Amino acid sequence: MRIICYLLSIIIANVVTAAFAPLQLGMFIVPMGTLLIGSTFIFRDLVQNKYGRAKTYLFIFIALILSGVVSFLLGDTIWIVMASAISFIISETADTEIYTRLKLPIAWRVLYSGIVGGCLDSVIFVVIGLSPIGANILPWEAIPAAVLGQIIVKIVIQMIGALIYNRVRIINGKHLVSE
Q1: In this structure, what DSSP letter does residue 142 have?
Q2: Distance (Å, whole) CA 76 – CA 68
Q3: pLDDT per residue over 68-116, tens digit each?
Q4: What is the rounded CA–CA span in Å between residue 80 and residue 4?
Q5: pTM for this entry
Q6: Collapsed DSSP state (helix, strand, coil) of residue 62
Q7: Distance (Å, rounded) from C-alpha 30 to C-alpha 21?
Q8: How far apart are CA 133 and CA 13, in angstroms?
């Protein structure tokens, strides 16, 4: 079920981003799919927790292929597809490695690794995919607002995910550091 949630969250994030206009939250620009991208890091951590790091990289590769195919089928430009792939590989790898190396309770590992992964994903995708370097969808003046908007949303989602996981863990009576 964890794997299905992980893969579906990535596919649905692509579809939602393509189907809906970005949210304008004050000065921040947030693609609708960002709401789901933040959760992909949480689902990836749960996959890794159950299947280990080596198998998680296999699922990341499968997710990368699915994301690229879906993005292409939705009519995204080659710049968007490439930016998505590059940001995905870097952010998911960072999340995986940070999650692996932190010797903290799982809720903290989910939070910290997801924040780093989300920040990397936001910066790389926006700069390569949306700026004048890439698809030229946003002018340079809008890039900081687009990056910060995504980072804020992803951090909030990571915090909610970590709190929910911690709450579920406490309810189930598990208080292990290395879950």
Answers
A1: G
A2: 10
A3: 999 999 999 999 999 999 999 999 999 999 999 999 998 999 999 999 9
A4: 24
A5: 0.89
A6: helix
A7: 9
A8: 23
